[in-house]
Amino acid sequence: MRKFYSGTLFLVSAIRFAIPVGIALVPLTSCTPSPNSEATAPSSTPKTEQQQQIIRASGGSSTIEVLQLLMDAYTKKVTNTQANFLPASQSESTLAGIQAGLLDIGSLSKTLKPTEITDDLAQRVIAQDGLVVATNPSVEGVTNLTTDNLKAIYSGQAKNWQEFGGPDATIVVLDRPEDESAKRLLREYYLGKDLVTSPDAVILRKQDELVSALQSTPYSIGTFSLATAIYEKVPVNHLSLNGIAPTLDNIKSGKYLMVRPINLVFKKSPAPQVQSFIDFLSSPEAIALLTQAGYAPANMTP
Q1: CATH number of 130-253
Q2: Same fold, 53-127+261-297 and 130-253
Q3: CA 270 → CA 102, 255, 277, 279, distances in Å?
Q4: Is 86:58 a contact under the CB 8 Å cutoff?
Q5: Element spanning 183, H or E
Q6: Above 50 in pLDDT, residue 271?
Q7: Which ranges carry the PBP domain (predicted)?
Q8: Which sign, positive or negative, has the C-alpha torsion 151, 154, 157, 160?
Q9: pTM
């Protein structure tokens, strides 16, 4: 059985240890360059640097990109604000980071249930993202799969692309862990909860790993963000499912079923710079940016 796992424990470790021992977190990435300062000449520090506002952010591997995209556009407009991103993590770690005061805002691929959100947290769905089932370009002649086709492929019952009008080649299934939204939705709408995944499936923890493997592995199939496929122009074949193509129009109309929310979580009384960013999300600029990036913007009226 071939399985690849990766991921980071950075945020989890930070939540466990940063507050008790008083360790300051060092942001790993930033949407804007950090201000320069001279350690040997404190008096030369410009006043504008002292007024620099920081937004600490993180999110899941499948949603953090859109948050970075929006934050980058915002910090280019509001130049006294800097966004510092911690590594992508699972939703539980993102929520814990916000509750512990280590994060100001986080992105999730699900809407929180009442039991998952505390009184001091707020959430806002900013867009819908379709999940596309795609194949490596080597899989020619296959443009549509039915529910039964998908079940046969993911269970390992179907092993050759010829069974679906494709080349005489072994099917390579690239899959996500059961707790990831891509696999949850694939089960909800097509596979069913009881289907046993093929032991030959390659399990990839992060979306970008699946996207990379899908491009480099001949005769492979996998499921990932439609927005990523559109915005990054990923050179793979997009498959229709039960005759419905994965398009923004079909997502907006409700015809295409496999859709997940892009949800932002933050404190109900956020810092001014965080509230300003949240307000920016309802602007025509942000909505246009989401559309250009392949998302279906949601009604973001608070």
Answers
A1: 3.40.190.10
A2: yes
A3: 13, 37, 10, 12
A4: yes
A5: helix 181-186
A6: yes
A7: 49-285
A8: positive
A9: 0.74
214-229 tens-digit pLDDT: 999 999 999 999 999 9
